[in-house]
Amino acid sequence: MRRLRALRxxxxxxxxxxxxxxxxxxxxxxxxxxxAAVPTLADRVTSLSNRLQDEExxxxxxxxxxxxxxxxxxxxxxxxxxxxxxxxASKDMRAAQGVTEDVRTAASxxxxxxxxxxxxxxxxxxxxxxxxxxxxxxxxxxxxxGKLASSYALRCVPFVGMxxxxxxxxxxxxxxxxxxxxVCGVLEQWxxxxxxxxxxxxxxxxxxxxxxxxxxxxxxLFCHVVGSWLGCxxxxxxxxVLGAMAAMMGLLLHEEKHRGRVWEQLPWLLGQYxxxxxxxxxxxxxxxxxxxxxxxxxxxxxEKVQAISTAVHxxxxxxxxxxxxxxxxxxxxxxxxxxxxxxxxxxxxxxxQLGSRSEAARVVSLDLLRALVRSAAEGGQxxxxxxxxxxxxxxxxxxxxxxxxxxxxxxxxxxxxxxCSAWDLVAHVFARFSQASVRLAQGNLSVAEVQxxxxxxxxxxxxxxxxxxxxxxxxxxxWPRLLQYVVPAQYTGTLVPLSRCLRExxxxxxxxxxxxxxxxxxxxxxxxxGLRQRSRSPAHGPHGGCATRKGAGYGGWRGSQRPFFxxxxxxxxxxxxxxxxxxxxxxxxxxxxxxxxxxxLLQALCGEIHGAVGTVWAVKIPFLLQYLEGKSESCLxxxxxxxxxxxFLRSSLETVKSQAWTMGLSFELSQxxxxxxxxxxxxxxxxxxxxxxxxxxxxxxYVRGELKKYLLRTNYLEESEREGMISVVAGAAESHFHLAxxxxxxxxxxxxxxxxxxxxxxxxxxxxxxxxxxHTALVLAYSRIALCAPREQLPARVERDIVGHILQxxxxxxxxxxFAFSTKDVQLKLSLIRSVAEVSRAVQxxxxxxxxxxxxxxxxxxxxxxFVKAEPRDCLASxxxxxxxVAVGHLSKLKPSLTREENRDLLDQCLQSVMPLPALEPxxxxxxxxxxxxxxxxPHAQTMGALGELLTALLEEELxxxxxxxxxxxxxxxxxxxxxxxxxxxxxxxxxxxxxxxERFELSGENSFGPFGSMVGLLAPLVCDSLATSxxxxxxxxxxxxxxxxxxxxxxxxxxxxxxxxxxLGAPDAEALLQASSRLAKIVCKHIxxxxxTDFLSAxxxxxxxxxxxxxxxxxxxLLTFLETCGGQLFTEVPxxxxxxxxxMPTMQxxxxxxxxFEAVSLLARYHTGSIIDSLxxxxxxxxxxxxxxxxxxxxxFFVNQLLRVLxxxxxxxxxxxxxxxxxxxxxxxxxxxxxxxxxxxxxxxVVSTLQTSEAVQRLLPELLPVLLKQISTTLGKEMPFPQDxxxxxxxxxxxxxxxxxxx
Length: 1304
What we know:
Blueprint: H1 2-12, H2 41-53, H3 59-71, H4 79-94, H5 101-114, H6 119-132, H7 139-151, H8 153-156, H9 160-170, H10 177-199, H11 211-229, H12 235-252, H13 256-264, H14 266-275, H15 280-296, H16 302-317, H17 325-341, H18 343-353, H19 359-379, H20 383-390, H21 399-413, H22 423-442, H23 447-466, H24 474-478, H25 495-511, H26 531-536, H27 564-568, H28 574-586, H29 594-604, H30 606-609, H31 614-628, H32 638-656, H33 659-671, H34 681-696, H35 700-713, H36 719-733, H37 737-753, H38 759-768, H39 770-788, H40 798-813, E1 815-816, E2 819-820, H41 826-846, H42 857-870, H43 880-891, H44 900-914, H45 930-957, H46 961-975, H47 980-999, H48 1001-1004, H49 1012-1019, H50 1028-1049, H51 1055-1064, H52 1070-1085, H53 1093-1103, H54 1109-1126, H55 1134-1144, H56 1151-1167, H57 1169-1177, H58 1185-1197, H59 1200-1221, H60 1227-1248, H61 1254-1276, H62 1286-1293
Antiparallel strand pairs: 1-2
Domain MROH2B-like HEAT-repeats: 253-514, 569-956
Protein name: Maestro heat-like repeat-containing protein family member 2B
Pfam family, one: HEAT_Maestro_2
């Protein structure tokens, strides 16, 4: 039987079954699988119950599998199968011995799962066991009953009476702690089931049961537990009793006659916080009790609220206890439940705790109030009460309290705001942000404190970012009060979210047609405030932006009748808003992109600022935003951006066409000056904006008064104030040129006439720098006025009224007690230099297409160059050189023009002031970083950049290749310097100069480039310089030369090959460097025209004399590469080339250098042998060692026969030529001709001497001896007989001898 059962179980294991597939009709030719039959619920339960009955396998696992099967299928079982399962599980659940705890638990869980479909059967089984025994039932019967009540609360209701009655009969028999816990579990779950039924009784199909029925069943049990079990000492029993008590107390609350006993046990329930270790069970019981309390809606006294709140609050605020997050959430939930029952008393208690000395208590109270916000908003009550409570701790110095207040504010503002009671909290967000900014700026905080303040700022910004203006009541709350935080500078960090809120509010108002039903009567739009009203009431003028119309106020409120939130608000004027937002936009990337936010807010508020600007701003502001799009802070041209903003301001003021409004803007701009630190970018822009507003103002007396005010009130010892004054005066000069010039002249005259008593006071004033500061400012003021003046008005006054006064103030600053001296004030020098540059630019711009003229040009030029000459040569102590180069460049473009010699001297002076400066120290020492060396490198780089601009300006004076050649000759001294840093700077200047000429080559009108060859020869050695930057710059110069050469030939330069080679010149590997140099030489040398070959060779030979072996080697390689590439084209240049080489030979005694020279001569001889021989024969006798060596080199390098034949032919004809021409030559030439045979004979001797063996000499004798013998006979004057027979001559030449005397 067991074998059959095992076979059946194996077939049905894993929930499947197997059946044999039928044989197909085609005899098995095609097979098709038949899906296995899915086992039914009965099959699986039967299989598992049989396994339990046969005691096979692990019973716990079997029960767990059975539980999963029952939970996954709602089908019903056959009666037999059901009975077998219940019997097996009931038996194991109640077994006292032989069954483990795990098996009993698993069996109990199976019964609970089985109750899902067979609840009555399972409940009957459990009730049977409770009734059958006259004594206490098994523990797991109670456990299972508790699980059933927890899982199927409503289905347990019909059995509540009998179950609780059965428990009454057994309570006196409970003796073990285990049984007590089990019984308490049943009481807890069945009481909760009854409470669940009372909530949802309408869902039950059976007749309704009343509260009295449940309470009458529970009351005896409650009394027994109170009388017998509340004194348990063990933790587990206490927890069990606690759960049962809380559930029964909740149930008894439904019946009024039992409530008294319930309230009597409330102190016991709260006292459990001090008794049990795990207080989370107490909190769960309390929260359940409060839930029922809220459902039955029983009024509760203040004392009970106080007691419950105190108990919960102490659990949260006691720092010695650290409840888990889940427990804290449950404690907060208790407060929420209590607030639903009695909100006034609950909020009052929390309000009282905000005054506690304990920081933790205050923080907990704020967190609980924050938790109440959401429920209060849903109920539409208590929000003003909550806000009023929190308002009492806004000034609390604790950072933790501040953080809690901010979190409360964020929660409050996310709900529906029905009144303006929350405005103080909104204002507190800005105030806290400002306080944190101040504390961080002070810099006396610890690391932890800095982090806390930064977190507070981040939380403030998060609140502002999360503000949803669409929330009901938010428009009434925020508009226009938020505007008061736009202007003050301490709120700059909040401007991005603030701008977003204000823009959305403005859009909502615009959509509503300014008649939003949410708007409060005390809030009105801005009104234009004229200068006349401001002059009547200066105390309430635009200062601070809080002026209001008398009587009207904000929407008709008068005096104390106005609400507190309007009394406290200081709304800015439209001019103040415009000024502030423009200042913020001037630094668009500061503060996380405040500039873009400011522009968008400006566009949104156009109607509030002035009604006339809407159309203009609709075009201008999008253009400004588009300009900023995609530009990072490093890519943005700050000067151009400020120019665009000032232009925007000017066009806006021209659109407004209101002098009073414009004067009000000027006043607001000056008022906001004190909000920013000195030397700040904001202050500098404000000065410029003030100047622009004065330029737009046509009220001349007002403009005059403002200019005088700034001239008189400026502290001339502060550079920032001097620059600000200059910006104001220059800006006003755009429209009031003559007025500005007149005011400055008057001020300068008054300054000179100002009496200073005593020589000591004059000397003291000089030492303090007051006079120098004034003169410096006025020097720059005049030039800036010229720069901003209208073009048509400037020429008439530039000489006498501007440049004359500039020189006058400079000379006056160089006098002390009537004695003139050379100034050492760097600022004064820089001021004059910058003034010269600005005046030059102004004159040049005023001239239009014609060249401007300045009579003071030479005087100014001499003064500026004197400053440059006086600068120390051992350091770059000031930007005088840089500024001077810029000024000279601009000045050189004016008439009268300088001569070429003067420009050459000017260039030489400038180069001598920069090139010898010491080299920058490399950042290789420990601790040296790129950031440390950057301040040193920047002045040098800027100075070299200014020098390049000066070179360009001087080149433009005469755009010809001859003038370029002279400029390059001036640079040549520094290109060949022995100091590597001087060569590097010279190469940089050379690259700038050649690049400028390349760009302007078409303008020169030339079709050739003379210095190409000489420059290539000069730069060739430098491609192997010791500095990588020098090598690359030399390559860049060669690239410019190639492109210039290509333009003359109208062919494209080989840029694709040259550019990569220039990059490779920076390689540290010597072999790679030489390869790049060789390849570059092959590309460049083929472009050298033959007419410039001698220039190239001369420069290259000079480069071979370099003390740097690599450079000398490079020069030699370039020379040989040129001769290999272009030697065949140099026929007419050979004598001159040989002469150049011959001249250099005495100075080149090193073997490596001489080998290059000899190789060069050999290469030339390969192409032009006769020309080389003729050139060498021109050397005078006696032959020097260099000439001898050249003949020998030719003998070694070429076929001797070829060379000797040429020499022998020349020797044969030398006598005849001498006889024919002796009568026609002068005596000196006749002597030279007489020596020619001797030169040839000596040349033959040197060539023959290079032969290494006697055999080689013997082979040459048949041809050589007759010629030599003939020369001997000619020399001796005796004619030697030679055989005339050609046959004998041939035999002689063949080496045959004869007995006859050949001379006969």
